[in-house]
Amino acid sequence: MRKDVPKLFCRYALPQMFGLLFNSVYFIVDGMFIGNRLGREAMASAGIAVPMLELMIALSMAITAGSGVMVSLSLAKKRPEEANSSSMHALFTAAFVGTVLAISGNIFIRPLSRLLGSTPTIQQDVESYLSIILSLSPFMLLSFVMGGLVRDDGHNVHAMVALTAGSLSNIFLDWLFMYPLDMGIAGAALATALGPLLSDLILLPHFLLRRGTLHLCKFRIQPRLIGRMAILGIPSFVMVFTIGMVTFITNTSIGCLSMGEIGLAAYLLTGYLMLIILTLFLGMAEGLQPVFSSMKGSGDSAGLQSMRRFAGLVFVSAGLICYILIFFFSDRFYGLFTAGDQALLAFTSSHSRAYFSGFVFAGINILFISFWQSVEETGKSMLIALMRSALLPPLFIILLPLLLGQDWFWFGHSISELITAFLVLFLHHMERAGDRKC
Predict the structure, then answer these.
(1) Structural contact between residues 130 and 105, judged by C-beta atoms closer than 8 angstroms
(2) 17, 85, 71: which is closest to 293 by C-alpha?
(3) How far apart are CA 160 and CA 138, in angstroms?
(4) Distance CA 250, CA 245 (A)
(5) Is 368 in contact with 384 (CB distance < 8 Å)?
(6) Which of 104, 105, 123, 390 falls between 20 and 30 A from 319, CA-CA?
(7) Could you tell me the CA-to-CA distances from 114 to 43, 261, 336 in Å, in that order?
(8) How many domains does the chain have?
């Protein structure tokens, strides 16, 4: 292994991981305040809204990943004007998509909330939460995209600080809106929606003051660039968007299995813990994207293989450590949200070990999705993204309870990750065999 690989990994993967980890605090802190201040039904309302939040994150990550590959390849080939054009198209696309979401989402807020699985008991809370989140969605999309562009421009710490500041502001605003101002679930939504705005304000000077290659400038919209960005970003979109789709299917299945509000609240709590674990993997994978793309652009095949091998060891180790912690200490994490609701705590903890039993394989799957996406092998990246999210989880979530009993519902995600990991290893083996023949 090359000596510079661990240094490059720490320089690029860790800041993005910590930045996204703090960014996930947006949703987790909301859950803590909602659970302790408003109770189980309010938590169910927030859980119903999760698929829409995940759609917004999926769109922003698609734009971020697609433009990131384009920018990194252009910079590696010493084409700064081309890189800057790609960054401007990414910012325009994020602002446009966010605006469309804000307008259309509010127009169709009632049918949207019902589609997501709202019950009459929590309908008003769901609409209130969704309306605020959707209204400020352009700021959320722009915070992800600008953070990614600043990272691609070599300012990893700046991007991490911006994401962290937005998260910390969310903690303060949650307390302010839900306790002194007593705004209820609307306060939680407003705190979540305003956090990205602070991140945007911290990131914007990088472009305005020309602190790197990328800066704001006049540009002519080129559909070809937006199309290429979309194609390169599809695997990231699928990987995140289908989390929302699976959440929707899971919420529906919980209803069919007669678990009620306690089932919805329990799934929301496991979702918070899942968010932390996936954020570790997604953050490291996203941070490595410019490294993989730059090595690809400069023809550094040896560096690519060394970085992928080292990253694989880190991802597997992180997955094992996470599961050990979950096995012994998950009930303490869930206790932060339940406010003395022992029935909810016991129900969630009893199913948590099964739910996360195969998540060590999720890290490998996410790493290879990012790697193949970064080197423009979009077909492989797309296949793995679909397998671990859109194809296998819905199948097992529906079939396992029917064939083996209700408790097997909680194994659906893990079995999907395991089967996908076998496919990843097969494709990787075929890839290496092809390289040896050449």
Answers:
(1) yes
(2) 71
(3) 20
(4) 9
(5) yes
(6) 390
(7) 16, 16, 29
(8) 1
Name the one residue in this structure whose structure tokens are 């790493």.
367
Neighbours of 430 (CB within 10 A): 11
Compute how many other C-beta atoms are within 10 angstroms of the C-beta atom of residue 6: 14
Yes or no: say if 284 and 17 are a contact pair by the CB < 8 Å rule. yes
pTM exceeds 0.85, yes or no: no
- Please name the amino acid found at residue 346: A
Burial of residue 426 (number of CB atoms within 10 Å: 0-12, 13-18, 19+): exposed
The secondary element (H helix, E strand) that includes residue 435 is: helix 412-437
Contact 369, 284 (CB under 8 A): no
| Helices (H) then strands (E): counts for the chain | 16, 0
DSSP 308-334: HHHHHHHHHHHHHHHHHHHHHHHHHHH
Q: Rounded to an integer, what distance in angstroms lies between the CA atom of residue 210 and that of residue 436?
A: 45
Domain of residue 390: give its range.
Answer: 4-437
pLDDT digits (tens, 9 = 90+) for 179-229: 888 888 888 888 888 888 899 999 999 998 888 888 888 888 888 888 888
| Cβ neighbour number for residue 160 with a 10 Å cutoff | 25
In the block, tokens 């968010």 appear at 275
Rounded to whole angstroms, the Cα distance separating 367 from 289 reads 10
Rounded distance, CA 158 to CA 162, Å? 6
* Of the candidates 100, 116, 112, 118, the residue with the CA atom closest to the CA atom of residue 59: 100
pLDDT tens profile 296-353: 877 788 888 889 899 999 999 999 998 999 888 888 888 877 767 777 788 788 778 8
Amino acid in the structure at residue 311: A
DSSP 38-83: T-HHHHHHHHHHHHHHHHHHHHHHHHHHHHHHHHHHHHHTT-HHHH
Q: How far is CA 137 from CA 177, 255, 427, in A?
A: 19, 29, 37
Among candidate residues 34, 32, 28, the one with its CA nearest the CA of residue 184: 34
307 with 292: CB under 8 angstroms? Answer: yes
In 3-state terms the chain splits into helix, strand, coil percentages (rounded to 5) of 85, 0, 15
Cα–Cα dist 55/238, whole Å: 10
Rg (CA), the chain: 21
DSSP string covering 164-183, please?
HHHHHHHHHHHHHHHTTS--
